[in-house]
Amino acid sequence: MIAKAKWLLLTAFVIFFQTSWSQSDAYTDKHRPQIHFSPKKGWMNDPNGMVYLNGKYHLFYQHNPDKPVWGPMHWGHAVSTDLVHWEELPIALYPDALGTIFSGSAVIDKDNTAGFGANAMVAIYTSHSHAMEKDGFDKIETQSIAYSLDEGKTWTKYKGNPVVPNPGIRDFRDPKVMWYEPAQKWIMTLAVTDHIDFYSSPDLKNWTKESEFGKNLGAHGGVWECPDLFPLSLNGEEVWVLIVNINPGGPNGGSAAQYFTGKFDGHVFTPNETDTKWIDYGPDDYAGITWSNTGDRKIFLGWMSNWMYANVVPTEKWRSANTIARDLSIEKAGGKYLVRSVPSPEISRLYTKNYTAKNVKVKNLDVTAKAGQLTGGAELKFDSDELKAFNIVLSNNNGEKVVIGYDKAANNYFIDRSASGKSDFHKDFTNTLTAPRLSANKNADIILVIDDASVELFADGGLSVMTAIFFPQSNYTDITITSTEKLTIKNLVFNHLNSAWK
Question: Which of 25, 29, 46, 197 is catalytic?
Answer without folding.
Answer: 46
